[in-house]
């Protein structure tokens, strides 16, 4: 139905264009008389320039206010005068019919071609609309994926920051452990030195005590 309306509108436009062209054309045609004469002056006895046949197109050059002659130019370029009663604004009916049929056939072909082009354009528009919808959907999906990636990146950044913080804490704990191990080693060294000194003192005291005890025993023996 929509295609028929388009054809009707286009046909009306072409008909109006053809009608406008016919109204503004400055052309007249030889009427149904078989042969008429083109004369050199606007009078019956003037010299005959050529003979014109039915359907010959003449360019109208002058239409005097008085008299029955028109000044015209033929397709061959001859200029002269013809009786106005033998020319008319349109070709003879028997000559116009084939031309009108040809114009009608051409117009129908042009309308069919125009309708085909419009159908092709509508199909192309539908395809582009579908492609646009698909592109829009894909763009929305990509935007969603981008948002998800951004969220994941934000989580990864937070995790990385937490990992860095824990790494620093671990390094501090290791430093503290090394410091404690160093302190422990120093304490152990001091303890070993203290035990060595204590043992040496006990050993020295034992030796001195034994020496004193031996002297006391010898002295008592002499007294006895």
Question: What does it look like?
Answer:
- By secondary structure, this protein is of the alpha+beta class.
- It has a domain at 2-91: SH3 Domains (SH3 type barrels, Roll), CATH 2.30.30.40.
- Helix content is 69%, strand content 15%.
- It has 2 helices and 7 strands; from the N terminus they run αβββββββα.
- The protein has helices spanning 2-24, 93-223; strands spanning 27-30, 35-39, 48-53, 57-62, 69-73, 79-83, 87-88.
- A 5-stranded antiparallel sheet has the order 6-5-4-1-7, with no helix packed on it. A two-stranded antiparallel ribbon has the order 2-3.
- It starts with a helix and ends with a helix.
- The model is unreliable at 16-25 (pLDDT under 50).
Overall pLDDT confidence? 79
State the end-to-end CA separation.
160 Å
Looking at the structure, the CATH topology of one domain is SH3 type barrels
Helix content: 55-70%
Biggest sheet: strands, sense, closure?
5 strands, antiparallel
Strand element count: 7
Our estimate of the beta-strand percent is: 5-15%
Q: What is the molecular shape?
A: rod-shaped
* Order of secondary-structure elements: HEEEEEEEH
Radius of gyration: 64 Å
CATH superfamily of one domain: SH3 Domains
**SS element count, helices:** 2
């Amino acid at each position: 139905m929509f295609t028929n309306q388009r054809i009707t509108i286009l046909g009306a436009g072409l008909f109006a264009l053809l009608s406008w062209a016919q109204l503004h054309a400055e052309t007249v045609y030889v009427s149904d008389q078989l042969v008429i004469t083109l004369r050199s002056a606007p009078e019956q006895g003037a010299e005959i320039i050529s003979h014109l046949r039915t359907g010959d197109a003449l360019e109208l050059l002058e239409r005097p206010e008085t008299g029955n002659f028109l000044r015209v130019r033929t397709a061959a370029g001859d200029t002269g005068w013809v009786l106005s009663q033998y020319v008319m604004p349109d070709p003879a009916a028997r000559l116009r019919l084939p031309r009108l049929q040809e114009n009608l056939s051409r117009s129908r072909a042009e309308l069919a071609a125009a309708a085909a082009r419009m159908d092709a354009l509508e199909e192309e528009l539908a395809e582009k609309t579908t492609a646009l919808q698909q592109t829009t959907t894909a763009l929305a999906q990509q935007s969603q994926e981008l948002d998800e990636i951004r969220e994941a990146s934000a989580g990864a950044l937070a995790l990385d920051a937490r990992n860095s913080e824990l790494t620093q804490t671990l390094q501090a704990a290791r430093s503290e452990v090394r410091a404690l191990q160093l302190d422990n080693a120093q304490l152990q060294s001091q303890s070993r030195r203290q035990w060595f000194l204590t043992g040496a003192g006990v050993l020295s005291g034992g030796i001195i005590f034994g020496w004193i005890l031996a002297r006391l025993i010898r002295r008592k023996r002499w007294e006895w």
